[in-house]
Amino acid sequence: MAITALILFIAFLALVAGARTWIQVRRTGDTGDRREAARRDPVQRRIDGLAAAGALALGVVSPVAALAGLPPVVESSPVEVGGLVLALLGTAATFAAQLAMGDSWRAGVDPGERTTLVTSGPFGVVRNPILTAVLITCTGLTLMVPTVVGLAGLAAAVVANQLLVRLVEEPYLRRTHGEDYLRYAAAVGRFVPGVGRLR
Prior knowledge:
single chain, 199 residues, mainly alpha, Four Helix Bundle (Hemerythrin (Met), subunit A), 6 helices, 69% helix, transmembrane helix, transmembrane
């Protein structure tokens, strides 16, 4: 299952980074990549570093370590197969949520930019469906190769996503969209329907 996890991780990156960027360029002439602006913000830069470390740990280091003989935390074919299903569903859901953002899709937050507030489709169910789906993918990859390295990577990814939303994205959306965002955030959960609504 380790080789399958590696292949799936690479496919995930190709789809949600490569293909989504290509679609954005075709639609708008712009890549949507705002990571350069994000790197100027020390908070965003540290969060991105934590997220990257977590993703590499669970998507690359854990499978490679398993192939080299690192034992799993639990040996269970149903757990591994369940992980594969979750990883596939999470990958598809991530890409679908990215497409639902339309021209507003961005990688990274540029504090000086204003995009349309998207509240329909999967964004009408949770405010951060892309990150929810990414965490489903990460959970699936971790279950496919359940090593201590993968579990640590998953923990880093969860923490990074929480910090990104709470310290970067939500303050940006409040400043940019004001009352419209506050009304939306009061009605729709952060990562899970009904949970994490702002008061």
